[in-house]
Amino acid sequence: MIFLWAFLIGGAICVLGQICFDVFKLTPAHTMTLLVVLGAIADGVGLYDPLIKFAGAGASVPITSFGNALVHGAISELHKNGGIGIITGIFKVTSAGISAAIIFSFLAALFVKPKG
Q: What start and end residues bound the annotated signal peptide (predicted)?
């Protein structure tokens, strides 16, 4: 049953993004930003963690979980270190993913030649 819920919740998040493209004519950058902000807001009000527990990868894989990670890290570090924790928490939680994206993009740029 967990696979069904993951499929349905993840699909619903993707449908929301597709609606932003088709109906509201938003660019991919605007849509991605909107989804990240919605994930951040959902975590800020305490809704995203229960969604991850319910849907598993259906909620933790889409881009909305990046907003969740940003806010989750900031809030947890705020409680530990005070105001400076807001900034350090964002970097601590997301640094591995962002570093991996930069490294793999660099490696891809070294080995893949664009057609043109």
A: none
